[in-house]
Amino acid sequence: MSDPGDELKRAADVMRQVHERCVWTQAMTHEELVPYLVEESAELVDAVETGDRAGLREELGDLLWQVLFHAEIAAHDDADPFDVDDVARDLAEKMTRRHPHVFAGETAETPERVLELWNTAKAAEKRQRTSVLDGVSHAMPSLALAQKVLGKGAQVGVGLELVEAVAAAEAIAADDPDVLPESEEELGETLLGLVAVARAKGWDAERALRSAVRALETDIRGAEQDAEPDPFGR
Q: Lesser CB count within 10 Å: N end or C end of the chain?
C-alpha cells in the first residue's frame, strides 16, 4: 500500500507534465477555467445527493484536477507565483488555527463550541473586514446567497422581521397545517410552485430573489453604520 499522499503527489506531477506538453492547457487562464470549475462542482453535488458512490469518487477527482490546474497556472504567473505546495501549506496552517481544540489546548465538547472557536479564529484572521457581508460571494445561486445573507443579517439584528413573519405563519399553521411546509420536500414543492407563479406572470424568479437580497444587504450595511463603535474592534 502506498503512503498517504503518494497518489496526490503523482496527480500533481501528471498536471505538471500535461501543462508542459499540452498547448490547450498552456493557453488556459483562471478566468477561462471558471465554467469548468462550476460544472465539476455541480456534478459533485449531484453525486452526493443521489448517493452515487462511484460518481462521488470520480467527481472528487475531477474537482481536485481543477485545484491542481489552477495551482499550475498560478505557478507560472510572473507577478505573484505560487504552486500547489503553497496552497496546501496555507490550508494546513489555516485549518490548524481554526481548530484550536485539536491543536492548541482549547476544549470543545459540542459542535456549537467548535463553531464558536472557528468564528473567533476567523475573525482574528479577517480583521480588515468592515462588514459581516465582506467575503460573501455573489456568484452563489440566489437561494444559497439568500440563506447566507439572512444568516449574516441575524448577526446584526437585521432580517428579524422575516423570522417574526414566519413565526406568525407557524402560529396560523397550528390551525391550518397547509399554511407552511413541514419538511424539506414540501419546501421544495412550495419553492417550485412560486417559480411556476413567476413564470406564469412573466417574472424572473432569479432576478426577483437577488433584488430582495440586495435590499437586505443595504439594510445590513445601514445597521452596521448606525451601530455604536465596538471599542475592542469586533
A: N
The pTM assigned to this predicted structure is 0.74
Structural domain of 65: 6-82
End position of a domain, from candidates 82, 109, 132: 82
Contacts 24+ apart (CB under 8 A), 77-84: 84/12, 84/15
> Of the residues 82, 117, 150, which one is the last residue of a structural domain?
82
- Spatial separation of the C-alpha atoms in residues 10 and 8, rounded to whole Å: 5
Sequence length of the chain is: 234
Residue % of the chain over a pLDDT of 90: 62
What is d(CA 25, CA 149) in angstroms, rounded to the nearest whole number? 37
| Alpha carbon separation from 89 to 82, 85, 95, 178, 197 (Å, rounded) | 11, 6, 10, 52, 49
Residues 217 and 147 in one domain: yes
189: in domain: yes
How many CB atoms lie under 10 A from the CB of residue 110? 8
Residue 132's nearest CA partner among 118, 115, 148 is: 148
Q: What is the mean pLDDT of residues 200-211?
A: 92
> How many Å apart are CA 112 and CA 223, to the nearest integer?
26
Total number of domains in the chain: 2
Q: Which grid cell sits at 155?
A: 448577526
- Whether 173 contacts 180, CB under 8 Å: yes
**Which three cell numbers, joined as nine digits, stand for 124?**
482574528
